[in-house]
Amino acid sequence: RTKIILPNKKPEKWSTGVAPGEYGGPPTTTKLRKYWGGKEDPITSTDLIWNRDFMDQMKKLFNDSSLDPSPSKEESSGFLSFSRVMSLDSMDVDLSKELASSSRSFLKDRRDTSKLEKASASPKWKLAPTRREQEKWDRATKAATGGSDVMFRELRRPRGDPEVQAAKDREQYFKLKNKIQVLTVGIGGVGLVSAYISYTPEIALSFGAGLMGSLVYMRMLGNSVDAMADGARGVFKGAANQPRLLVPVALVMIFNRWNAILVPEYGFMHLELIPMLVGFFTYKIATFFQAIEEAI
């Protein structure tokens, strides 16, 4: 049989927290309490909530003859004290001097503020602005009232015969329309030649298709503006008969059908969508150049 040798030490048990030094138990010595708050033992201190002699101390405090409830003899500390509170509750204390002095100071402050208000309301001499400040003010005034000045200048301008003025305006409008169309054709031609030299013929053909759509769009836009001369009826008629917003849609449809039918069956050149859209927006570049010329 196997012989089992047991250890001499007793098996450890769970701590009950009763013996000193155990978990949950009291400390092994009472000298640790002196290190909690300083040299004085906190258990025997009179400043903690477990002070059992606080009644005797309070009676001694109230019966002390050195305390004077009169607020006039008490030094001003800036804080509320028990003596001041008790003096306010007492009917034997005379506070007429303090109230009179506070009312005098209040009236004096009111006089000072009224003098300051009168001094501020009185007119003062303003210093002349420097040259730089005057230039800044002139620029700000011009920027703020520039549109109003132009409008008033146009209103003050002497008007001639309305029919002659209408003829001049109509002539100026037709010149502007023709000029924008010529600019569109010129910029489109330069872009077409540049695309043919710098890129492939397919890109040049796509740019040319977009340029044709731009010219058609400009033509429809001119007809819509021409129809405004007939009033509201002409505006409605021009907007209904000139669906110029369908031009970019038609260009996209042509691009789709061209590449899907004509290129594989008949061997035509392939079209590109981006150069086609760039060619279509050529009229925007012409309009931008015209606006810059008018501004200059």
UniProtKB/TrEMBL annotation:
Signal peptide: none
Domain CGL160/ATPI: 161-293
InterPro entries the UniProt entry points to: CGL160/ATPI_dom
Domain of life (superkingdom): Eukaryota
Region described as Disordered: spans on this chain: 1-37, 111-133
Membrane topology value: Multi-pass membrane protein
Transmembrane portions of the chain: 180-197, 203-222, 243-261, 273-292
GO cellular component: membrane
Localization of this protein: Membrane
Keywords, sorted A to Z: Membrane, Transmembrane, Transmembrane helix
Pfam families given in the database record: CGL160_C (PF24763)
The protein's name in its UniProt record: ATP synthase protein I-related protein
